[in-house]
Amino acid sequence: MLLPMFGSSLGRWRIGSLLGFPVEISWSFLLLLAVAMLAFGGMTAVFVTLLAFGSVLLHELGHAVVARTLGVRVSSIELGFFGGAAKMVELPRSANHEIAIAIAGPAVSLMLSGLGFGLGAVTGVALLSLIGWINLVIAGFNLLPALPMDGGRILRALLTRRMDYVRATDSAVKVARVFAIGFAVVGLFFSAFQLLVLAPVLWMMGTQERWMARALAERYIRTAGGYAQRSAGRGGAEVEVLPRGAWEVRGRGPRRPVVASPVHLERRSGLAASYRGRSLGRGGRVVAGRAGAADRGP
Questions:
Q1: Which tens digit of pLDDT belongs to each residue from 21-74?
Q2: Are 126 and 38 part of one and the same domain?
Q3: What strand order describes the sheet that includes 83-88?
Q4: Which domain holds residue 32?
Q5: Nearest partner of 273 among 242, 235, 246, judged by Cα
Q6: Dihedral, CA of residue 157, residue 159, residue 165 and residue 166, to nearest 10
Q7: Which residue in 10, 47, 136, 182 is deepest, having the highest Cβ count within 10 Å?
Q8: Model-level pTM?
Q9: CA atoms within 13 A on the CB side of 89
């Protein structure tokens, strides 16, 4: 699963890194291990859960590597009660990039599945066949067209070839909510606790995706191949937001360039003219327009 990064680091602990990506576990992952131990067979269930999450980690690593290749920064990979998430600091620049990043995780899982089934058949080791089944389930589940799952992101990206980014997101969320209701029904009738809990979470995450799509609508334009990031050359301006205190540290001399590293860099039409020099609270202050030179302080 791919998620935009937000919120604090409370309740998450870094346990290492893989190919340069920090790996974190949340408190809910520890809860899952406790549930597995107490309700599903003790240490054997914990071992199978850890085996499954090893596969989830490689699935998320597939997302993260392709995202980094396409210039989308991933802050970390987080493991939790419902699986894993590659947390993106930036969003994909186009529909094709989103499809490539989203499909990378299931592709890794399908390769691991084939490897597990193949080695299991050759060696007769049941554990290898189990790895094959685990990864097949991971790939199939994540390809369900339920935003923000991988299949839902692929669906949204494909829909932007026929409609704008907001309408495509709304349509993908409607499909996701059908699945959320289905998860709730299956969870009730088959006592599938995890699906029962996942249903309202998926519903709420769909709402968040709709809000985010509206907030970012001006960033994207519709093309024949789906959405694409708007170019700054089309009347837009480059906006640099510096962290709190950087304005004072770097000085306010006339036309003096600011060389502090920006926390965030985005291009949006008219934003520089509207916000230049204005305090943005925790986000900092917009100090540079298209010319790239700092404004005088107030």
A1: 999 999 999 998 998 888 777 888 999 999 999 999 999 999 999 999 999 999
A2: yes
A3: 2-4, 83-88, 74-80, 21-26, 12-18
A4: 2-143
A5: 235
A6: -130
A7: 136
A8: 0.75
A9: 12
